[in-house]
Amino acid sequence: MRPRRWFAILVCLCCLVTAAWPAEVKGENKKKERLAVVTVDRVNVRQGPGVPYRPLANVHRGETYRLIDIKDGWLKIEWKKNKIGWIAASYAAPVREMEIVQEDRLRLRQEPGLDGRIIGHLAQGDQVIVIKEKGEWKQIVTKKAVGWVAASYLADAESPTGSRQTGVVTADSLNVRVAPSLDAERIGRLLHGERVEIVETKRDWYKIVTRSGLGGWVAAEYIEMKNGQAVGNQEEAVAESASPAAVDLVTIQGNGPRQYVKKWTRTPVQVLAGKTIVLDAGHGGKDGGAESVNGVTEKTLTMETAERLKEKLETYGARVVLTRVNDDYVPLSARVATARLYQADAFISLHYDSAEDEDASGITAYYYDRFADYGLAQSFQGPFSKLSALPFRGLAFGNYYVLRENERPSVLLELGYLSNRSDAEVVATDSYQETVTTAIVNAVRHYFQ
Ligand SMILES: [Zn+2]
């Protein structure tokens, strides 16, 4: 498959333009929105400012809500989108700022000062909500506790408004648009369960930033807010539900500074358990694809690569589905349908390149969707860069049917040029097939870890 260079260049220009805008998010929304954080384990939200009023819901420690008014010892908050209620002021506090813990095992104390009783520890990277300051000390709220920490171990969370929140996508697939409107251009999509940072709210839309730093607008109704604390990764979630002893940190003995590692590292065998990977051996049947000067066809090579990959991925516990198992002609639409049918966690299309320039050489990883696909494509950067057999040409936008029409995270890999005499010899060797499939497996593991 030959990439359409001119189109790629045009898209790259567009990327440059759009890549610039998430930066302006910071300056755009200076208007400070007041937030209140819940300081007790659980408290009722009531219909009015007083105990006789009917309870509407429960809110919990560490959760933040938009603060609308303060009246007679009660806080008026927006406890759910467009739902207003009241909580007793003694069970919540106005948020001063959000900060990030800069040191592992940071001591949380009951009172400010080194004499204060230690009531817990915070981990480096934890997001905390500051509600009070006293000298060099700050009173903070997390999901688990309220306490004091030395201010010098905290740093500003990036948000200038102090109101950045994390959310999780609840729809199967959620469009990301350039502006807060259904008519606005779609620039990507998010998948169910994906975590985003919410940087701005406008009517029923959220302006979000993904972990890879890409931004855009999404319909707010499909984002579930994770109030207060940043959402942890899966390991942390598992750790929280385990017994306290099991989640404690292990000290590694050594001469250098003490290091702490998390105990619950998973064994390699399980890393891809529960993941479905659809492998798409490019071309087949009447469509032979590219052909090398020494007569090797692309369709034969892609099948060989796919079969080796399947075996390796399965040893890590993945469910692997092939879009073709024989030398059959399978239409592109059927290949994409396989990804949808099996709800692929990753779709990997395998190809070998061809170009008029006989010197063109190396590997390219193509993505289409700048959200769902780019993260997957990025995982290939490291493993492919380390290959010595062929140069890695990098990640590129590719307007390929199997990517464009795919609802699942997908990449298309061009694993060497059959039009290049030297590349063609390399890719046909057993050792290349072995190392390139290992690199792909490493990329997939990296993506899911
Ligand atoms: Zn091809």
TrEMBL record:
UniProt cross-references to SUPFAM superfamilies, sorted A to Z: Zn-dependent exopeptidases (SSF53187)
CDD domains: MurNAc-LAA
GO MF, one annotated term: N-acetylmuramoyl-L-alanine amidase activity
EC number(s) stated in the UniProt entry for this protein: 3.5.1.28
Signal peptide positions on this chain: 1-22
Assigned keywords, A-Z: Cell wall biogenesis/degradation, Hydrolase, Signal
Protein name as catalogued: N-acetylmuramoyl-L-alanine amidase
Classification lineage: Bacteria, Bacillati, Bacillota, Bacilli, Bacillales
